[in-house]
Amino acid sequence: MEANFAALLANQSAVVEYPQQQLDGSSLWAARLADDWPTALPFALAGSAQLTRFEQVAVASIQAAQAQTAIDLSSPRTVFILATTKGSIDLLAQEPEPSVELLARASLPTSARLIAQTFGNINAPLVVSNACISGLNAIVLAQRLLLAGQYEHAVVVGADLVSEFVYSGFYSFQALCVGRCRPFSADRNGLNLGEAAATVILTTDAAAVASTAPIRVAGGAITNDANHLSGPSRTGQELELAIRRALAAAGTIAENVNVISAHGTATVYNDEMEGKAFALAGLANTPIGSVKGALGHTLGAAGVLEAVLLAQSLQTSTLLPTVGYSEPMPEVRNPVLTTPQTKPLRYGLKTASGFGGCNGALVFERLH
Amino acid sequence: MDALKAELKSLLVEHLNLTTVKPEEIGDDQPIFGDGLGLDSIDALEVIVLLQQHYGIRLTKAENGPKVLYSVNTIADYITEHRK
Amino acid sequence: MKTSFKILGSCRIDENKIFVNQQLVFDNFAINFSQFADTAYQNQGVDYPRFYKMNNLSKLGFLAAEYLLSNFVESPSAHVSGELTGIILANHYSSLDTDLKHQQFIKQGVASPAVFVYTLPNILIGELCIRQGIKGENTFFIAADYDIPGQTAYVTQLLNDQLITHCFVGWVEYTAAGHQAFLAFVGPSAEAALPDYTSTTINLLFHQSYGRAES
């Protein structure tokens, strides 16, 4: 995670060209893990060799997070939440006519159970599949379950891979950028896909938090555009509603938000809609940034991955630049972060929107 | 040309699941998006895929999509002009 | 004092039968789901051409919502849409039926946008939101089985916290092996005759045999 943060500060991008990937032979620009990625891990990957690539990536992320805390992830008081859009969907390509056994193996409950086994958690895992807001939605869910006293701790992992299943679909939507994407830029013309797993461990036990600047998951909310399956709201009112409710749940106001980690996919309509929503929410002067130009759109993982980076921003008083940014777009009034900045930070807002019209907003607060 | 238009109308009805519309009910000049046939942007993308599959024509929604996909006439003209 | 919430209406679709508030309202000897769904849609007499574009999972959930809402015990129509209504649904196999279809297209060297968009389970929620104008809390859960206590606790929390006043809850599953839909609309009501919204009552409505129609 520190390595990712440092690379982002240095304005680097993991998005590269993969020639002849699409069905018509054209290139895919995406941020993908190397084929031999487990060899680069500083620890031995837990779980059996039978885990799918998706499950392995999720497990590796949980292991890395677990190493930073003494919280007992196997406790019955710990809930495990998996956020993903497509999980091990790449398995479908293994058989011309997938068998019932293969379909069961590829299903998300199977993946969630096998991942939970690697850290000995016996609770029924929760799986959130709410398109591109899955990760953010899972953190909001975890916060609510902890607030209700149902659990003491939560392990939230968001993970998704860049499979042919997914990139051929986005290609048919003409949603992919040839080259590196340009979030919040006038000449933006599509997104890059990315694959990732990211984990947050939440607790209600303040004594279990080692950091000198702990992050409070202050509040969140989910809304729906009720407008179109793939295109975002024309007005941004529904994302604004999510932001307004998240701020209220967090017990704060728009003026107190120091930074927004936006969805910023670099598609024409998403970035425009977000600009409108921020203005409606009274956040037009708040600095915004997107990491999609560096890490790609990691779909169901994005909400967790980007929340982790936002937490790191707050803890280190460092604002990340928007890798790939080119020139201002008229629909966004916010200052777009283009260079790393150091300043005291307290409240950070994370937003996300996805297919199916869903929007999510999440507020983090740095304590101390 | 008329055969091409008739074929296009059948393809539209079939690929866009226009169950309540008969191909011959679609007018040559009738706008097919917006209020016309109640089609949306996903349908537009679907038509682009259809044109590529059946006629080998590449179209991008951003560049000339709206103009070409206006009506059966405009699509037929574009196909006649660009067919390989 | 906490408000008690009621089940304002429920709908269950078992194979070719549609039950609303435990009463059989539609029964059709269809040869496949597609035929059943089209007949059930036409039987409702609504004009909503989008229906024909939906995947089977969305058609199933759409029909459950249409039948539920057209057979209300109370008439809380004003609460069906808007920012204070939510939808929390779940199933086991996500959008598998459409996933396989998309995979078949890929094998043939082409991807269809109209198919791909339905390869997410929450597109069903999106369809219901578009149809009913619902803008509040919405999440699709995937679970091995319908976790009724978990879903009921979560939705009750959303209602108690006043994030929403009304909510569609349920389980909607479509695979080639079969389909099942259960949808309930819950919210506050002074009507004593309505069942309380608890995991016990949802459990009964979901699992119980509905009399002669199933005998």
From TrEMBL, chain B:
Coiled coil: none
Carrier domain sequence ranges: 2-83
Keywords from the UniProt entry: Phosphopantetheine, Phosphoprotein
NCBIfam families assigned to the protein according to its UniProt record, in alphabetical order: PRK09184.1 (NF006617)
Protein name: Phosphopantetheine-binding protein
TrEMBL record, chain C:
Descriptive protein name: 3-oxoacyl-ACP synthase
Organism, scientific name: Hymenobacter aranciens
